[in-house]
Design goal:
192 residues, 5 helices, globular
């Protein structure tokens, strides 16, 4: 778990908001024999009043010609048949429990890893926004990694890859958000 405090002079409801990342189990990956000390399931952190927004990490490979690839470091290892896309109903249940507890849960895209990801063109950005909307947010898709759980937005943790298509990606998501029954979050932690 990594936490940051987000403060904004523009909106009072963002002041002193604590945002954290969950899902990489860094300690557990190097201590495979000590499972009891690994990062806990998502719902365990939502019982903690410290955190307001939890970024689920990471969607590591956009796979623009197919289905995106997630990495939740031992929290979920099951894929949809014939794909490399994780199917994580337990995380989906935890997302809903967190939201019921008043937490916002967003999906972090990118991260620091061996995979390359990026959006080379505006068309790539628009297509990928359609995929993200349908698989993780308010749309519908045959493969929804968290089943019927609807995330509260996305976080861009951009540390590699082409960036030209991100304005179109954000614009396309915002077009979906306009008619959505709930508000969505877009945040970023870019590495320059």
């Amino acid at each position: 778990m990594h936490a940051v405090v987000a403060a904004s002079a523009d909106t009072a409801d963002c002041a002193n908001t604590v945002v954290t990342y969950w899902g990489q189990n860094s300690w557990g990956g190097s201590h495979l024999d000590q499972r009891s000390r690994w990062e806990q399931p998502l719902a365990a952190y939502c019982q903690d009043s410290t955190f307001d927004i939890i970024n689920i990490s990471f969607l590591i490979n956009y796979n623009l010609t197919g289905l995106p690839v997630l990495n939740h470091a031992f929290h979920c290892e099951t894929t949809f048949n014939g794909t490399h896309t994780l199917h994580c109903p337990d995380i989906g249940a935890d997302i809903k429990a967190c939201q019921k507890a008043g937490k916002k849960v967003v999906l972090s895209l990118g991260g620091g890893n061996i995979y390359t990801y990026g959006l080379e063109t505006a068309a790539d950005g628009q297509r990928f926004a359609d995929t993200v909307w349908n698989m993780f947010l308010g749309g519908t898709h045959k493969y929804r990694p968290y089943d019927d759980a609807v995330l509260d937005g996305i976080d861009l943790d951009l540390e590699s890859g082409a960036q030209t298509g991100y304005p179109a990606f954000i614009s396309q998501l915002r077009s979906y958000f306009k008619s959505a029954p709930k508000q969505y979050i877009i945040s970023a932690a870019p590495q320059c």
